[in-house]
Amino acid sequence: xxxxxxxxxxxxxxxxxxxxxxxxxxxxIEHKRIETTLPKARELRKYVEPILTKAKTDSTHSRRIAxxxxxxxxxxxxxxxxxxxxxANRPGGYTRIxxxxxxxxxNADMALIExxxxxxxxxxxxxxxxxxxxxxxxxxxxxxxxxxxAAAPEAIVAEETATPVAEVEAAPAAEAEAPTVAEAPAxxxxxxxxTEATEGDEPTV
Length: 205
Known about the structure:
There is one protein chain. By secondary structure, this protein is mainly α. It has a domain at 14-125: CATH 3.90.1030.10. The protein is 52% helix and 10% strand. It contains six helices and three strands, in the order αβαααββαα. Helix 1 (14-31) packs across helix 2 and helix 3 (60-70) packs across helix 4 (73-86). The radius of gyration is 49 Å and the shape is extended.
């Protein structure tokens, strides 16, 4: 049973497992990305990230602790030089695991584990976060109402002064354009001849 056992043994003894993770960590620091099986990549992440955090403090004590895990002087020089400079402002999460599918021979789950700060393609595609500003509703309402209140008296004065002038200017123009109906002579209707009946005439039937 596996009660209380939190890590994956990877089918190896303790000494073999520690030696394998040390070699994988050295390869990751040297080449910045390696391809391995998914369970090994997950265990490597737990193993190497505390070492990367320790590398941020460049002291004799930190170098000795890192060397006790990695056992490689060239890798220690690379870790406290190039890698530590890149990850200086990152508060954790130094590695990224990308699944690659299954291996042809034994159908094992494969993965690519890499250092995040050394993938220039993904860093260039990342968009900068927008700066969020917080605005007060009360302040915004007062600021929006003030210009309207200030502009209201000016609008009223403009309306009062503009209306009489417009009426005065429009009145003569209307008088000049309207034709005078009284001056034109009215057409006379033709008069019908009046027929007077005489006493001696008899009506024709």
